[in-house]
Design a protein that fits this description.
The chain has 531 residues and is α/β, with parallel strands linked by helices. The chain has helices at residues 99-102, 104-116, 121-134, 275-283, 321-331, 346-354, 375-381, 418-436, 490-494, and strands at residues 119-120, 139-143, 151-152, 156-157, 167-168, 172-175, 181-183, 194-195, 209-213, 225-228, 232-235, 240-243, 253-254, 265-267, 288-292, 296-302, 306-307, 317-318, 335-336, 340-343, 360-364, 385-389, 391-394, 400-403, 410-414, 446-448, 460-469, 476-480, 497-501, 511-516. Helix content is 17%, strand content 22%.
Length: 531
Amino acid sequence: MVGRRSPRGPHSVAQPQSRAGFSEQSPRQGSGPGPRQSPDHGPDHVPGQGPGQGSDPDPVQSPGPGPGPSVHQGTDHGAGHSPGRAPGRQPPSHCPGTESARDPRARDRRADVQRRHATAWGEARALAARAGRSASPRTLRLTLDRAIGRVLAEPLAALADLPSFDTSAMDGWVVAGPGPWTLRRGEDGGQGLCILAGHSVPALLPDGDAVRIATGARIPANATAVIRSEHAHADEAKGLLYAQRQVVPGQDIRPRGQECRSGDQLLPAGTMVTPAVLGLSAAAGYDELLTVSRPRVDVLVLGDELLTTGLPHDGLIRDALGPMIGPWLRAMGVEVSAPQRLGDDREALRHALTTCDADLVITTGGTAAGPVDHVHPVLAEIGAELVVDGVAVRPGHPMLLTRLTSGGPYLVGLPGNPLAAVSGLLTLAEPLLRGLAGQPVEVPYRVVVRDEVHGHPHDTRLVPVVHRVGAGSGSEHVVPLHYNGPAMLRGIAAADGLAVVPPGGVRSGTEVEILDLPWATATPWTEGCFT
């Protein structure tokens, strides 16, 4: 797990595609080969895409002049996980008792309430982070070889002075007093006396004497300095050592406690255990570290129309979220169970939520107000506490965050459209999991966006981008990508982050906040990283 990284240089992950594919997006290529920004129907609809494509009457700026093809995205009302439920497909008959199935007007009222009371994007992230920090983290004491990639549950305090005694910083001669110095001989009168690291040293170095010393060896009492081998001349015939440069008292000696004193705080709680942290911990005297246990997550995949293998057929579509969510969460550094595929079974969903022992449940689809969207009704039945019910962000408007029971697990409900689900992961799941994992609040960073990016009239937009460094200038910027509709994964698959576009959009050259994708900063030793 890691915090947010600083803007990167030219080693950006994803490379731009040609403009015939999901290329860097230009604000004036509405008639080009890429599709125009797609409608997000239902509660997650980006308005202004034409009659009959959504219920939000507010206009949105066109992505550019020209006819520009428009792609039908489907209704973000279930576990569609691709361009919506197939046309003409009827909802299954095994959903009696749902509020929306009994009364379509109730469904419409709930969707309208979601739209009118959606939480602002920044506030939703803050609420998710606060919820994660409010939970009491589980801790685990691990040996150093097992602690890599974990988070410190307590500050790391030095158990000893570093270094614990005065040591030589170089190979050379340790001397006392002014020179020239008499070369110390071995007890038998030989010339082989040398103070080595880990070996005993003379109790006292008399004034005017010199003795060979190795790097890391303990400095004898009364020593003045260490003279590097290349800066000294030993006249063995006369038994004298001469300095070829001025000798400054204390030179090339690391004094005891130079780095820290016993009890000094070296690192705060919440620090990730990196290889360097392991080295520091060992040097400071630790054999074990108290770490925060990794959050445990259950994934529930909803939707009767989902296939796990083969090609779409007969109104059935491939499940894109089941294969994606688990590895995505593992890249955040959490433990994830295998996805449970519940279909559109209300009772199965209720049983899964009431018997869960994970820290977080993530559902895919079913968060809107369709006839088989059971998430809200089931949450109401079990008395869950809604923290966030809809977010003013596109895509991903009908996402939600709730606590299933007092002191019990949280649930993040993701919309069924793939990019909308990614939006929910980064808006609600990631800050919640950071809190559960004991990580500190991340510090946002901003980068200039190269092209104009059109925005929603009222809501935040999350747009896939890649980092680039300008040729010649060396300045970093991000480039928005095509295929950023709510049901599309083609853009996010080429991206290394999402740009946070405020309502109304931004002009080229404007700085925008960036949300990193987990693998954009992943390092092999972390066994998964937070963004």
